[in-house]
């Protein structure tokens, strides 16, 4: 469509407004995390003196460092397993005919619809009985079941776009279904798998409900849950600014992933949701 | 996609296997096995952890059961549901949840549409836009909730001094507290909505818009008569996703108000009954009601969606 220079100027203004909308709250929490002493309560957007004090506080606190370790470890493990299982399942769903296919998709949909809180409370009972309460495994398992539907849908949408003639060609040339999958489809599908991994990581990294219901100590508590319990950690000062610093730290991985892979993430979100 | 159901093999395996040495059937059987081999692990992982808790929640919801008093567990059948549904507090929290859902989703739809239009049309700053949009999407909900809670706080925040509101306590009243929660939610989830809308927007052929422009349609007419009708499917999907999500709001409420000033939502009620008050039976019943409501919303959406789409098709023919 022909666009006049003036119209284009309007769109640029719009773009700048959107960027401001998205970034200002983030800059605010960053700015708060650099405040110190009286600055914290000065009701101004920016600190008068920029200080690393709060970052020193949070990294000196076991509560935060162990939570960070838990979050990173559990998110990576859950993401890896989830994406592997989802890749296999999405391939079967988009390519193979087998009885129960609709059942798998239906269960995936039911899980996305069912409120997390309604799963978390019965799990709390169950985990305490089987000894999984307050352990990494006790969180990784629910992370898996809750992130699988998303990855399956995103990946199934990607797999539908793959030129499957190539798979058939490989099978005509004598490859088995498994060989065709491994040699032809995996390389074609890896961008989609990668996107699914990022989206899964975001979902797991974001978890709060399982984090607060299924943990009771630093052994497995992830960062979002730890932030909510941060109050007890620093008795001397208001924990506001340290919480801000901790919040900034856990936002860094998100920003890095977004900066590196924005195009893929957008493609994954729009494909998976609309076509899946 | 057509579903080819392989003919059900009769009960005598050895005979049939011999009789069915046809290549195609053999392949179909292999395909079926492979299908379950590949999808099975994911299926088990999904069902194992959710199936039992869901059934368990339904079962427990039929008991008067306090975790601290396991011997006092008594079967009350639908008693918990009666207790909840006749309690004014439940309906109040249902109202709060409904208000948050309606307000956030409708604001997000309008705002998200604007965002999608800009992303679709802007020739410059495209990468910066994408990055900026994805930051609220990717950020942890708890972090977003803290950022907004502190921004509105009259002790730490800048909002009051920016708008000259003095010492106004946003978290001191129901409506102002709900407002802050809605702002946080809208900020965090509008990008997701806008991306879904963008996908719909991208599917509208440019010819349509050019034709409308040639025919002298104004910008507003083009939006109303060409763009919106052509992206109905994307709008419905975006609305469905976000409504289901908004109805289960928990994180932001937990962090920003902790349910104070009557800002409790249904998810929060379920959490508080079960975890804090250890009223497992009652809490499970709240969870089940919440799940039923969510399913009802989904069914309603799909119904409207279907009739809407078929009507649309009928118009065109």
UniProtKB/TrEMBL annotation, chain A:
Keyword GTP-binding among UniProt keywords = no
**Annotated keywords:** Cell membrane, Membrane, Transmembrane, Transmembrane helix, Transport
Q: Which domain of life is it from?
A: Bacteria
Q: Which InterPro entries match?
A: BP-dep_ABC_trans_perm (IPR050901), MetI-like (IPR000515), MetI-like_sf (IPR035906)
Residue stretches spanning the membrane: 9-30, 72-91, 103-124, 136-159, 180-205, 243-261
Gene3D superfamilies reported in the protein's UniProt record: MetI-like
| Membrane association type | Multi-pass membrane protein
Localization, per the record, is: Cell membrane
Q: Does the keyword ATP-binding apply?
A: no
One Pfam family hit: BPD_transp_1
The residues covered by the ABC transmembrane type-1 domain are: 68-261
| Family, per entry | Belongs to the binding-protein-dependent transport system permease family.
Per its UniProt record, what PANTHER family does this chain match?
INNER MEMBRANE ABC TRANSPORTER PERMEASE PROTEIN YCJP (PTHR32243:SF18), MALTOSE TRANSPORT SYSTEM PERMEASE-RELATED (PTHR32243)
Record-given protein name: Carbohydrate ABC transporter permease
**What lineage does the source organism belong to?**
Bacteria, Bacillati, Actinomycetota, Actinomycetes, Micromonosporales
Automatic annotation (TrEMBL), chain B:
ABC transmembrane type-1 domain span: 94-301
Q: Which InterPro entries match?
A: MetI-like, MetI-like_sf
Q: Which PANTHER family match?
A: BLR7065 PROTEIN, SPERMIDINE_PUTRESCINE TRANSPORT SYSTEM PERMEASE PROTEIN
Recorded family membership: Belongs to the binding-protein-dependent transport system permease family.
Protein's name according to its UniProt entry:
Sugar ABC transporter permease
Q: Which UniProt keywords apply?
A: Cell membrane, Membrane, Transmembrane, Transmembrane helix, Transport
User: What sections of the protein cross the membrane?
Assistant: 34-55, 94-119, 131-150, 170-187, 278-302
Listed Pfam families: BPD_transp_1
Q: Where in or outside the cell?
A: Cell membrane
- What membrane topology was assigned to this protein in its record? Multi-pass membrane protein
């Amino acid at each position: 469509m022909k666009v006049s220079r003036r119209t284009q100027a309007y769109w640029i203004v719009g773009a700048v407004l959107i960027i401001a909308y998205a970034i200002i709250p983030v800059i605010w929490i960053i700015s708060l995390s650099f405040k110190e002493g009286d600055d914290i309560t000065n009701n101004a957007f920016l600190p008068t003196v920029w200080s690393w004090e709060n970052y020193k506080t949070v990294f000196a606190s076991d509560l935060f460092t162990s939570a960070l370790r838990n979050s990173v470890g559990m998110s990576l493990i859950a993401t890896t397993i989830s994406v592997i299982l989802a890749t296999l399942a999405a391939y079967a769903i988009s390519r193979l005919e087998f009885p129960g296919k609709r059942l798998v998709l239906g269960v995936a949909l039911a899980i996305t619809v069912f409120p997390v809180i309604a799963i978390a409370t019965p799990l709390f009972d169950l985990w305490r009985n089987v000894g999984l309460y307050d352990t990494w495994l006790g969180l990784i398992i629910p992370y898996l079941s809750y992130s699988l539907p998303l990855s399956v849908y995103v990946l199934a949408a990607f797999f539908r776009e793959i030129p499957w003639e190539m798979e058939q060609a490989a099978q005509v040339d004598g490859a088995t279904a498994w060989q065709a999958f491994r040699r032809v489809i995996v390389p074609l599908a890896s961008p989609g798998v990668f996107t699914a991994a990022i989206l899964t990581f975001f979902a797991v990294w974001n978890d709060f409900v399982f984090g607060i219901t299924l943990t009771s100590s630093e052994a497995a508590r992830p960062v979002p849950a730890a932030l909510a319990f941060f109050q007890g950690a620093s008795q001397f000062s208001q924990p506001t600014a340290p919480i801000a610093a901790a919040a900034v730290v856990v936002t860094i991985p998100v920003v890095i992933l977004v900066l590196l892979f924005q195009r893929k993430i957008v493609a994954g979100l729009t494909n998976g949701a609309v076509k899946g | 996609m057509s579903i080819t159901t392989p003919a059900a093999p009769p009960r005598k395996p050895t005979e049939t296997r011999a009789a069915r040495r046809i290549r195609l059937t053999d392949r179909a059987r292999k395909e079926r096995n492979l299908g379950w081999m590949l999808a099975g692990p994911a299926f088990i992982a999904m069902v194992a952890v959710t199936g039992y808790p869901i059934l368990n929640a339904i079962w427990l919801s039929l008991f008067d059961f306090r975790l601290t008093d396991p011997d006092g567990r008594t079967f009350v059948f639908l008693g918990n549901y009666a207790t909840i549904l006749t309690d004014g507090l439940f309906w109040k929290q249902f109202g709060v949840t409904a208000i948050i859902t309606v307000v956030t989703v409708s604001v997000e739809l309008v705002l998200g549409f604007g965002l999608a239009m800009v992303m679709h049309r802007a020739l410059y700053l495209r990468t910066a836009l994408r990055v900026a949009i994805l930051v609220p999407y990717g950020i942890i909900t708890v972090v977003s909730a803290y950022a907004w809670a502190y921004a509105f706080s009259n002790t730490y925040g800048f909002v009051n001094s920016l708008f000259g509101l003095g010492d106004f306590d946003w978290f001191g009243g129901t409506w102002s507290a709900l407002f802050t929660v809605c702002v946080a939610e809208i900020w965090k989830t509008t990008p997701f909505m806008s991306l879904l809308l963008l996908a719909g927007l991208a599917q509208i052929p440019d010819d349509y818009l050019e034709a409308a422009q040639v025919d002298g349609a104004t910008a507003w007419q083009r939006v109303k008569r060409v763009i919106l009708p052509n992206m109905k499917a994307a709008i419905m999907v975006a609305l469905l996703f976000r409504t289901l999500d908004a109805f289960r709001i928990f994180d932001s409420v937990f962090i920003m108000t902790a349910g104070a000033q009557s800002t409790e939502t249904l998810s929060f009620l379920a959490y508080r009954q079960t975890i804090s008050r250890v009223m497992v039976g009652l809490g499970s019943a709240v969870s089940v009601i919440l799940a039923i409501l969510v399913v009802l919303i989904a069914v309603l959406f799909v119904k409207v969606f279907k009739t809407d789409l078929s009507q649309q098709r009928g118009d065109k023919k």
